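User: My collaborator sent over this chain with a note saying "see what the structure looks like." That's all I know about it. Can you take a look?
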Amino acid sequence: MKMFSRTLDKEAMMESRKWFLYQCKRKGLFPNHITSNVNCILNLIIEDSPFRKHAVNLMETVKKKILRLEIRSTHWKLNKLRGEIGRLRGNVSELLGTGEEGVEFFRRQNVRHGNSREKAMRGVKRKFEQLVLDLPLVENHREKPGFIKNLSDVETPLNVDRLLALGPKFVLPTRRVPILHMVADVEDVVQEVGDDERASVLRSKLVNVLQNGITRPKTLTAQERMISSWRNETMQFLRENRENIVVTNADKGNITVIMNKDEYVEKMQELVNDETLLMPFRNDRLAKRMMISRI
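Assistant: Without extra context I'll predict from the sequence alone. Here is the result:
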């Protein structure tokens, strides 16, 4: 019976580990034991060696393969443990029978197993959150209130705060090639070139860049994948609360402000109706009221 209880505990730990490994894979992260062991090999390469970049790319590939292999190994161990649990359950049932004693034993074991699983999940969730915070380009902006200020009545999730705190000038990672924008920008430059042959060369180079971007899209780093997940979470949050909040920039400083929508509209209306600051533009040909500042 003790073996049955210990096997249930092992199954709970292995289930939580599977969740942790899948989260790492989904977010593009690597557990510390994989990173540290692979970095030991990378440290053998001299910092200014011409092979350093090649070694870094190779180690990234190795880490991905090790993570996938560990996930497969975890699935195998889980199936083995569940088979062992089934075998031990049959042995215990034969020993205790189907009476009240056997029913009570399995009830207590189910409760204990549920508690063990919850405890293991809490541990791996803390471990995963710490792994996210340890990323070099990911900072806990919630601890730096100067980056973002929430004046609304809606509580924002942590990852939403992190993304909005990056500011409007931050370029979000993407694997999409902005084909139309690139063609338009290059064509503006080409129009200034007087030599038709040189203009054709520029257009040919653009075609190569676009073709490479489409056939070989950029592989996002772990930090970029994490920021992309923040973006998705933020877009979902804003869609759900678009009737309640407004996200804007402060007049001074690189600060993102979140306000209640009704308060924002009320303040804007007060500014528009303040004749000491604004006045109607009476010579509007379209017969619309336009406001101009006296300052």
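A starting point for your reply to your collaborator: Residues 152-170+221-294 form one domain.
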